Amino acid sequence: MIRVIDLDKSFNNQLVLSNISVSFEPGKTNLIIGRSGSGKTVLLKSIVGLHEIDRGEIWYDDILFNKLDFNAKKEIRKEIGMLFQGSALFDSLTVEQNVKFPLDMFTDKNEEEKTDRVNFCLKRVNIINANRLLPSELSGGMKKRVAIARAISLNPKYLFCDEPNSGLDPITAILIDELIKELTEEYTMTTIVNTHDMNSVMKIGEKIIFLSDGVKCWEGSNKEILYSDCTILNDFVFANALAKQLRSSLK
Amino acid sequence: MIKFLTQFGRYFLLLKKVFSKPEKPYVYYKQTMHELVFLGLNSVGIITVISFFMGAVITLQTAYNTENPIYPTYLIGLGCRDSILLEFSSTITALILAGKVGSNIASELGTMRVTEQIDALETMGVNSASYLILPKIIATLLFNPILTLISISVGIFGGWIAGTSAGVITSEDFVYGIQYAFIPYYVTYAIIKTLFFAFVITSISSFEGYFVEGGSLEVGQASTRAVVYSSVLILLLNVILTQLLLS
Prior knowledge:
heterodimer, A: 10 strands
């Protein structure tokens, strides 16, 4: 479980996140939603320690993560897998080398064991016969799946996904969502996904928090989101024409 | 002034991170081998071409400026040797490498920063500064002295070819000139300067690339800054090292 308590974060004296408190449960797909610029990515990067926070606490189970030094954080980070918005695959490494990278860095496995693990992870995300390709030779969806394979190669306890289906067509986006949900349940990971895609919200949002201008405005599940009284949330959820029609039919 | 001091502090904090204990020495070894080829071996071609013509021009210029019967012709060979040894092979080579290697390093790291590859390393628990920069520093410290020695040899060879082909000096005189009053310490001096320059090029360029914020435009600007700052520092260090090592 990951708990965030009273988190504040600012850049150049401008408050970007204010008084955020939330807990993310293991085995569930936890979603952070909100408009562009609402602070989703900053919150996610603050939780993984890429941003130093101004105030508050970040707990990984019973460890106060934000007070740890670099080396102690490293131990927690070995249990973290992260999927970045642009995939962030290493350009100079092949698909196989990308997925093998965490294994090379943090395990004492021999080459055969590492290759087996790489092939297992790639097969799990449905990437076949692409081991020797470079990231530049992959489609957007394939890059995301390879990045997921890299994120799960060390069997992480925590999985973070920053807009995993941005730039993907709707069908590929659904496949990525399903993959994230399956992996979360399979390995009982604590998964946190940043998104503004309402398809993802409805499909995998077991727990959702809604951010607006750096403030947590709403918390609930995908079953509750359509019936919320929160005006800002409703403006976000029912922003497109199809959703507006759905809302009028619900009423 | 405050901005300069801030940058100065960030540079040394980055170096502290770079020189911390590597996670997996074997991975760093592999990375260093890769950088030796990428930053070192791939620079042999351009250094060879430039040094050859540099040596040729120095010889011809020395010859045309010493067209006087009271000067023995072997002085042309001596002048070519000392100019190349003392200045050109270390400093000019470093300036060329600041352009080639420096911009390469800054743009590579800058692109990795803006595409979140450095964030990905940090999230995994890898010391990104050490993993990405230390092998580059080691590779250039190991290989740049070799480039300087290549430059010295090729430069003198270029001088010999140009001098004898243009008929300004005989082969015997040139060979006598390059052996005359030879001070072996000049080679040590050139190597010492090269080591300092290699460190400046790699660390300044890495610093500029590692802290890029923004997109492709900022990566280009960082690359330009890397070349300019490295070149200026090389010239400044050249004066200081010359005073320290030759006085």
